Amino acid sequence: MPTFNKKGAHLMNDFTLNVKQTSGLTPKELIKIMQERTKVFVVEQNCPYQEIDEKDENALHIFFTNSNEILAYTRIVLNDDQVHPSFGRVLVPKNMRGKGFGRKIVTATLDIISQKYPGQDIKIQAQTYLEKFYSSFGFQAVSQQYLEDDIPHIDMLLSNGPHA
């Protein structure tokens, strides 16, 4: 796992991994994150919903940047069950897709979760079409498909700790 400087950044190849609580984001970072999230989850997916939510208040934002451009993003939050650590809002802007940033940001996010919540299972709400992608990290489906904001989703769990 990489180490981070006091600003929450770690240089990786030609991009920087940023790990920041919402309160630690600069106004410019916060606006860029919200712009990218709205582009992907509201505009691209043609899904009008309240994209910015109360989870953002205490979220840990994980994002790659190159200069001032966001290359990939996730946020770490508690699952709706208030027990399991989770992550979501995984995105790679259109112009950066197909370059491996999705896999890199999820890998970095899982590493950070394992440091913050050692041995704990991770539960996510994945868009159903990404089930195979998340399965490649060891996640298993633990629910039937359901609609969230008219988009098919499935709950998935990554088991990390000892189980009875």
Please specify the SSE layout and strand pairing.
Elements: E1 9-12, E2 15-21, H1 27-44, E3 60-66, E4 69-78, E5 85-91, H2 101-116, E6 122-127, H3 131-135, E7 140-141, E8 146-148, E9 151-158
Antiparallel strand pairs: 1-2, 2-3, 3-4, 4-5, 6-9, 7-9, 8-9
Can you offer a commentary on this structure?
With 164 residues, this protein is α+β, with helices and mostly antiparallel strands. It has a domain at 9-118: Gcn5-related N-acetyltransferase (GNAT) (Aminopeptidase, 3-Layer(aba) Sandwich), CATH 3.40.630.30. Helix content is 24%, strand content 33%. It has three helices and nine strands. Strands 1-2-3-4-5 form a five-stranded antiparallel beta sheet, sandwiched between helices. Strands 6, 7, 8 and 9 form a four-stranded antiparallel beta sheet that branches. The chain is globular. It starts with 8 loop residues before the first strand and ends in a 6-residue tail after the last strand.
Query: Sheet bearing the most strands, described?
Result: 5 strands, antiparallel
Mean pLDDT: 89
Taken in chain order, the helices and strands follow as EEHEEEHEHEEE
Number of helices: 3
CATH-scheme architecture of the domain at 9-118: 3-Layer(aba) Sandwich
Give Rg in angstroms.
15 Å
CATH topology of the domain at 9-118: Aminopeptidase
Strands side by side in the biggest sheet: 1-2-3-4-5
**Mass-distribution shape:** globular
Helical content stands at 10-25%
